[in-house]
Structures are given as structure tokens and as C-alpha cells.
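Researcher: We're teaching a course module on how sequence relates to structure. For the next exercise, students receive a sequence and then see the predicted structure as C-alpha cells, so they can try to spot secondary structure elements on their own. Here is the exercise chain.
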Amino acid sequence: MDKAKIRLAYRIEIDSSSVFLWDKYVWEDTFKEYLMQNQQFNSKENPKNTFRELLSENEKAVQLHYLVGIAAEGYVKQLKGNLHRITDVLGNNYLPFVNYQLDIINTDITDPSKHKIGITFYSPFLTLIGIVEGNYLVSKNCESVNGLETLMFPVQPHLSICYYEKNNPL
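Model: And here is the predicted structure for the students to work with:
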């Protein structure tokens, strides 16, 4: 069987209807941060209410993804490198992650209910052994050895292989 080095990505979208408490805190703080940060890119003479309008007017506003993302950093650190929404098929292990990227889907300074962000979490390198019965069969070990401890994560919406490097056969 051929092995591959992969990285998994899992994306969550957070808006005013999100039900997880963690999401609500992230939503509130990123909206507050957006309200503060958008002022440096918005025109005083002809202000734009939505993020998409602001981007079309001022291409430097793309920096808002990063600047607003800083408001989520403390919440992401609380997860301690494990994304608890994705468990292995046994329910024992969480999807590990090493970094994340926040993006603003859209927002409106006059209507908080339109604030929507996405956060994509990226796993460390994993060894993909194969896809078995709709599950990614992976190992946290990326070194070439005879045996590997494995985990199985269900293939599901918003979970994707975002990096793939073919290795030598086992």
C-alpha cells in the first residue's frame, strides 16, 4: 500500500446563529475588532458599511482578515492544539491542529447580525495510509517504520486534505 504525507484542514463558519459558546465569544470579539480596525481603511467622506464594499473600494482592507483574526487568537489557544469537533471513529482522539487562518466572509458595521467569519484549522503532517470505509486512516508518525499507530477520522463536510506528498510504498 502506498503512503502519503498529508495535512488535513477543517473549516468552521461562525455567524450570529452559531450555537457553541466558544463560537459566540469568537463572533462577538471579532465583530468588535472589525469595528475598530475597519476605521483605518474606511473613507470618512464616503464610508462603506460592508466588508465586501470596503474591499472593492480599498484593496489594502484585505489586511482586515489578519487584524480581526488576532481577536480570535486567545480562544484558539484555549483549544490546546486539539479541534474537539472532529473525533476519531472511536471518539477518543481529537483532530490535532498546528495553526489556523481566519477570514471574514462578510460583515456590516451597521448590522451585527450580518457578521460572518470562517476559521480553517490545519493539522500537523500526518501519514495517510488510505481511505477505509469512508474514513481517513492516518498516523501521527511520518517516519518510515514497519508498524504505525493509527487513527481513523471520518470523511465529512468541511474536512479536506489540503497538502499531499506521495511517499515510497510500504
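Model: If you want an answer key for the exercise: The mean pLDDT is 94. The chain is about 20% helix and 40% strand.
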